[in-house]
Amino acid sequence: MRVITKIDELKKVISEYRNNGKSIGLVPTMGALHNGHISLVKRCLQENECCVVSIFVNPTQFNDKNDLKHYPRTPKEDCELLESVGCNIVFAPEVEEMYPEEDTRVFNLGSVANVMEGKFRPGHFNGVAQIVSKLFYAVEPDKAYFGEKDFQQIAVIRAMERQINTGVEIIDVPIVRENDGLAMSSRNRRLTETQRKNAPKIWETLSKSYTFAQSHSVEETINFVVDSLNSIPEFKVEYYEIVNAESLQPITNWDSNVRAVGCIAVFCGEIRLIDNISYCVK
Ligand code: PAF
After folding, report:
1. 212 and 240 both lie in a single domain
2. Residues 1-26: pLDDT tens digits?
3. How many helices (H) and strands (E) does the chain have?
4. 29 Cα to the center of ligand 1, angstroms
């Protein structure tokens, strides 16, 4: 496994693979890797002859500077884990390498970027588009892999790709959960013992809401989720929205022809966790 920190060297090494007819897959990450990331890497390795994993805590997507400061960084463990699963290239640049000057690009990401995370984290998705586009230009992968925990992020990256048109195929990979149901996230390691004990209730409540939804309206289902989670000490739901899975716009009625997804952001103390569930209501 090669660990590379400079774009020039990355391009050179990747061109050797490409000149030998090898397909290239990219898994963009911010490090602090867990089994959710590893499922992306494994899928990438199945579908490509060269798997590039980027590790870069991207400052432009953090609207909360405190979150950026405390974002977990575990480069040594990350590289060991990636080597153990057969990753070919780790690209781990410094901030100056990715942003030698301020990135003033503003992407037109359309309506999928204005709701939920877009509403509560202004500038976040533009920052995601900035870094992912830079990674697409640097790696020129055939395919890039993203986890469905960040459901809205995938829609936004597809919108960005339509705009920049690099031809990268965006692949979404299902959420990986802990045994107790908590969606894997690098932020989970920042939870206190009590918060960690309560955090599986997010998925437990979403799962219960699936059954609840079969005999209740969209609004009642939203209230069920929000009220259940807000009753847990230290938990505060920032939003729970049930949206059309394609447009990401809120739905008001169940419609069996429209795939509905419930997307949640919850503060557990200071730590903000997200998750989602697909509904099928007849
Ligand atoms: O999902 C993430 O970890 C990040 O948003 C990404 C896609 C690596 C861009 O920094």
Report:
1. yes
2. 999 999 999 999 999 999 999 999 99
3. 11, 9
4. 5
Instruction: Report the residue among 40, 55, 61, 136 best suited for mutation to probe ligand 1: largest number of ligand atoms under 8 A from its CB.
Output: 61
Tell me the residue length of the chain. Answer: 282
pTM confidence score:
0.97
Give percent of the chain with pLDDT exceeding 90: 100
* 263: β partners: 241, 276
CA of 129 relative to ligand 1 center, distance in Å: 9
Confirm if 128 and 38 have CB atoms less than 8 A apart: no
- Residue 90 included in any domain: yes
Q: Containing domain of residue 139, as a range?
A: 2-173
Domain count, the chain: 2
Structure tokens at 163: 């705009």
Same domain, 38 and 156: yes
Q: Which of 139, 173, 207 is the last residue of a domain?
A: 173
Specify whether 158 is located in the same domain as 191: no
Q: State yes or no: is 37 an active-site residue.
A: yes
Chain mean position to CA 63: 16
Residue type present at position 165: N
